[in-house]
Specification:
With 107 residues, the chain is α+β, with helices and mostly antiparallel strands. It has four helices and three strands; from the N terminus they run H-H-H-E-E-H-E. The protein has one domain. A three-stranded antiparallel beta sheet has the order 2-1-3, covered by helices on one side.
Length: 107
Amino acid sequence: MKTFNNSAFSVVAFAVAITGLAASPVAAQGVGTAFLIAEVNAETPQCRDYPEFGFVGRVSGIVGGSPARGVSFTGCFPSIGACEAWKGPVSGKISGRLIQSSCDVRS
């Protein structure tokens, strides 16, 4: 009968925890993707906060990483120029396929 070596198990568990191989919500979506989403959301005027803004911008696509993930961003703007100025840099952060990149009159 084989015996269980508790100290070897502890070393392996510690190594897994240190290297981030353990499953967690952040690990599942990729740390880079989580930071990208937070960064873009911080730079995006939310429509709920600006009901008077007349233009809506939408950008969505696939962000590479492990695993690749679909992301979508929506913001509202006071002018078409402000929307276009936001849309360009945000579209550039999509590292995979760009699915949508638009600025339209808010309905």
